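Researcher: Next entry in the queue.
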Amino acid sequence: MKIKLRWKLLLILGIVGLAGWSVYPPSEKVRLGLDLKGGVHMVLRVQTDDALRIETETSMERVREVLEVRNITVGTIAVDTPTRFRIEGVLPTEDAEFRAITDEQLEVVFRRESGAGGRYAFEMRPNMAVSLRDESVRQALQTIERRVNELGVTEPIVAPHGVGGDQILVQLPGVTDVARAKEIIRSTALLELKLVEQGPAISQELLLQANGGRVPDGMEVVSGTDDTLSPGAAPQPVFYLVRRVAAITGRDLRTARQTLDEYNQPAVSFLLNGEGARKFGDITGQNVGRQLAIILDGRVYSAPRIESRITDEGRITGSFDQQEAGDLGLVLRSGALPASLTYLEERTVGPTLGADSVRAGVLAALTGLVLVAFFMLIYYKLAGINAILSVALNLLILLGVMAYLGATMTLPGIAGFILTIGMGIDSNVLIFERIKEELATAKSVRLAVAAGFDRVFLTILDTHVASLIAAAFLFQFGTGPIRGFATTLFFGLLSNVFTAVFVSRTLFETILGRRQVARLSI
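Model: Structure for this entry, 522 residues:
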């Protein structure tokens, strides 16, 4: 009996020691959530129509290029909606070949709607539209996560949100420069390298003068600033006529980093992957002497002249300061967003408010523990000390498990701690009341204690299993604060079964095993 009791005590001491080691020092081991540490909470919506529009425009331009190569004459080619474009002016003599080309290029993604007089419309298939929307949200989620990780934020949360399927929750604990974080997250960072057909010009009207004031098919006008001016000079807006289809995009990037230009000003250099290097080499090799516009998010940062064939490296110059260049390198490394983002919700929690929440939560937990301890001592006398020790060990073990697993402590988590105190005391009350009933039948103290624990164990187990199932459902289907509460509740229930039954009983057995006790203070 003594050997068995010794092993029980060693097990308890081992678990308590491990919990204490896991949680010490608490300032380093216990991770605080947004509501306790301070930071920013944002809900963003992915504008999935952007991804559909890009796919539609890309497909339309691909068909245009093939038609030009095959010498098929058409009239207007234009996008009507994010999922629909039209081609007009198909000659009757070329209609069959036109159909064959569009079937070859578009059949998987678009459905052709034929019309009279050489007019055709192409509508994106519904299943492809759904797939592209889902994929754009997944890509946005991954891109935001990479950007947040490069910011060095501890324990960020980037997760799907809401029921519409197009929202993303972002929580950044400890972030103080909210404006910078928002800009990095929201920046589309769409890098495009496009051949310049005309420009630069000081106005759009002057740029298009040679074309009768209209933008030629397959072209577009983009604006920027004069990159030939010396540093410190006032920037002058300029306009370029470039090809609509980019020669190189952000998808071809391997990495990007902050560097310095020839004026010792901050710039961003980039390296291309294998496929990008091949395309870049072909484009620069075939267009020596022409300008190549480096466009970021629709704005021309520079338009250098191609001096010779270039393969895998380039540089973006502009009016950057050091932090802006570093941030641009960050967003380029993390990849371009597939669609733009809009902010639906934003909350900022200051560190002072977070610290106040921690103090209030700890005060509430300690106050609850003291009041419960006072009640147990008054009502159950010396046996109440057993319950107090069990609850205290329960909280220590729970905190140790949370720290060991790297779980984040939140305000709802503190509420879970306080609830754990109540459930721990409730279990001890059930046991003590049963022991009282057994003592009333004239049983010895040792037999009454054993019977009290044995007959209440299944009741305690049933209630805890039911609560564990509820906590599991809360964690599975809840978000944010609900999951924090569910995590604390789940591990608190497991710890409570151990302390209220095993630890409490071992303490009774230790006291009763040393001497014969005729009367129990309970």
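Model: The chain has three domains: 2-33+351-514, 48-129, 187-339.
Researcher: Noted, moving on.
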